Amino acid sequence: MGSRSAMNATDKKLLDNLQSDLRQLSNEAKRKFPAVKEAAESGIVKLRNAATKHEQLVLALRSDSPEILEPFFAGCDSKHPKIVQISLNAIQRMINIKAVNNLAASNIVNCLWGLMEAGLEEVKVLQTITQLLVTTDSVQDHVLAKALVISFRLHFTKNPTTNNTASATIRQCVNCVFERARDQLKERTDLSKAYQCVDELKTGTHAAPPSLARASADAYLLFQDLTFMVNAEQPTWLLGLQEMTRSFGLELIEDILAEFYQVFITHPEFTFLLKERVCPLVIKLFSPNTKFRAQQAAPGAVQDKPFFGICMRLIRIVSVLIARFYSCLVTECEIFLSLITKFLDPEKADWQRALALEVMYKMCSQPDLLRCFCIHYDMKAHSSKILQEIINSFAEMLDKVEPSAVPDGYCLSVGYVSIIEMITSITKLIHKYQKKSPTTEEEATANQELCIQLVHSSWGGLISVMGLLLETSCDEQITDTLLTCITSYAVLCGQLNMCTPRDAFISAMCKGSLPPHYTLTVLTTIYQSSYISPRSVFEADSVVDMRPSLGPYLGSGGSLDGGSDVAPRTDQIVAVGTPLPTRSLPQGAHQGPVMLTAKNLQCMRALLILSQSNGAILSTAWHMVLTTLQHLVWILGLKPAAGGGLKAPPSGTAGQGVGPSTAQGGSNVGTQSSGGQGEACLTTAITNDLPVLSAMLSRLFENSQKLSEVALHHLIDALCKLSQESMELAFSNR
C-alpha cells in the first residue's frame, strides 16, 4: 500500500509539472500567439484525460505523447525565445521520463530541425538530441539520420560554444548508435545470410544489407557515410549534410574502430566496410605523405605537401587497424606496414619520422603482433619481410639520421626575445595612445582604461620573468637590455599612476644593484609580493648564458668590445666591503663582508639614470631608491667631498684579508679604503667607474631643481625618512 501511495505521489508530481509547463506556455503566448495559447489550454485537458487511461502514468503519456507534445511544438514554431525555452524544457521532461513513442520522437526531431535552421537555442537543441538518443530506442532509420545531421551542421557553426557542444554531442550519439548495434549483434548466431549479403554488397550498392536488423543497419549506414564524407563524396544516409572536415571525420572513424572493433571483426558486413571503404581511403590519403621529400625538390617538380593534422590521424587509424584487425586485414596491413617503414627514410620530415616511430614503438611492445608479422610475412616465400624491414629501418635511421642540434639554453633564449618583444610592443602601444589627442572626454577615458588594463594584465608575469632573467644573466649586453626594458616599464607604470607595478619593477632594479643575498626590508616586502623566486626554477648558483642564440640582440660577434669573441661577464667581483647597519637591515644580518659584482654596478647605473631622468614619476618609490643608493655608497667606500659631492677613496696598497686577493675573472685588487664605515677592497676594474658613479649621484640631487613641487616633496620626504632611521639607529646604539 505504501508503494502504491509513493507511486501515486510521484505520478502526481509529474502531472503537476507538465500542467505547470502548459500554463506557463499559455501565459507567455496569450498576447502575441493566441494559437499557441489555445493549444496549451487544450493540452491541459488532453493531459488530464490521458492520465486516466492507464494505471501507470508514464505509459499513458507515452501512448498519447504526440498530442500532449503538440502545444510545445507550436511554441517552438513561434520562434519566440522565451516560448521556445519553455517548450524545450517541457519536451526534455517528457524525454527524460521515457514518455515518447516513435511518432512523437519523429515530431521532436522535425521540431529541432526547424530550430536549427532558425539558429535558435542551439545548445539546448543539442542537449535534447542527446537525451532523445540516450534515453529511448524510438529514434531509428531516417529520423536518427536527421538528428545526427542536425548535430553535424551545428558543429560547423562559427560559435565556439555551439561548436564544442556539438562535437561532444556527435561523439556521444555515434557511440550510442554503435552500442545499440553491438547489443543487437550479440544475439546473432547464424552468419550464412550475412556472407551472402556481402557478395551482393560487392556489386556497388550503398544500401544497408538486408541481413542486418534496424539498429545494426543504422550503424552500418552511419559508418559508410563517414567514409564517404572523408573521401569528399556525398552521403547516402546523412541527407542534408553538405560538409565535414576531414580531420573530424577521421577522428570519429578512429573512435569507432577502437571502441567497437568486435563488431567489425565478427560480422561480415562490417568487415566489408573495413576492406572496401576504410583501407582504400587510408591508402589514398597517405599518398601525399609517402611521396613527400623534406629535401629540395627538383626544378619544376610539384609536391603535394602533407598536412600534419591529417597524417597524424591517419597514423592513429593505421595503428588501430594493425593492432585490432590484423587477423582479417593481412594483405592490407602489409601495405600499411610498408608505408610506415618508409616514413623512417632520411629524406622524410622530422615529424613524419616521429609519428612513425610512435606507431612502431607500440607494435614492438606487442609480442603476439610481432609473431604474426613473422608468420604471415617473413616466413612466406613471396611476401615482404616486414619484421626484417622494420628492424632494418630502425638501424638505418639510428646510423645515418642525425638529430637536430638544439643549443643549450635555446628555449630560454626564445622566451627571452619573446618577452623583450612583448614589452616593446606594449610600450609602443601605450605611447601611441598617450600621444594621441582624443576628441571627446569619453575617448580619453577609454584610452586611459585601455592603457591601464594592458599594464594590469601583463606586469605580474613580466616582473617575474624579468627579475628571474636579471638575477641569472651573466652577459653585460643581455643585462643592459633587461635593465632598459625594466626601466621603460617602470616609467610607463609611473606615468599611468600605477604605484604597485611601478614599485615592483624599481624594486627589481634595486635588488639587482645590491650584493647577492643582501637582505633589505624595504625591498623584500614589495619584491616578494610580485616576484617568483628564481630558485624555484634554477639552482641558487646557476649561471645562464643566453648568448649563443640571441642573434641581433647581442650585436656583431655577441660582444661589446668589438675585438673579442666573448662578451664581458657581469659575475666578476669588483668590490668587497661591509654592509651598512640600518633599521631596514635585520639585526645580525651580514656580519661579514659583502661583495659587489660588475652586474651590481650596471644595475646601479641604470637606477641612477632612471632617478635622474624620471624623478617625477618615482613618488613614494624615492625611499627604496635612496635606501639602495645609501647602502651602495657605504659598501663602495665613497666619502663626502667639499661642495656636497662624493669622492672615491684614495689609491693605496692592495687590500689583504678583507676579500679575495684576486677577483673572479682575474682582475687584481688595487685599492683599499679605510674609515669609520669599515674597509672597502676595490679591484682595478672599478677604479675608473667610481668617479663616474660619484658624479651621477651628485647630479641626481642637482636635478631635483627641475622637479615639480609634488615630486620634490616626495624626494624630501624620502630623505627625511632616511635621516630619521639613521638617528633612531644611532640612538639605539648609544
From TrEMBL:
Q: What does the record list as GO biological process?
A: protein transport
InterPro entries this protein is in?
ARM-type_fold, DCB_dom, Mon2/Sec7/BIG1-like_HUS
* Chain intervals for the UniProt region annotation (Disordered): 646-676
Q: Protein name, please? A: Protein MON2-like
PANTHER family reported for this sequence: GUANYL-NUCLEOTIDE EXCHANGE FACTOR, PROTEIN MON2 HOMOLOG
- Record domain Mon2/Sec7/BIG1-like HUS: where: 217-386
Per the record, the similarity remark reads: Belongs to the MON2 family.
Show where the Mon2/Sec7/BIG1-like dimerisation and cyclophilin-binding domain sits: 10-181
Show the ranges annotated as biased composition (Polar residues). Answer: 659-672
Alphabetical UniProt keywords: Protein transport, Transport
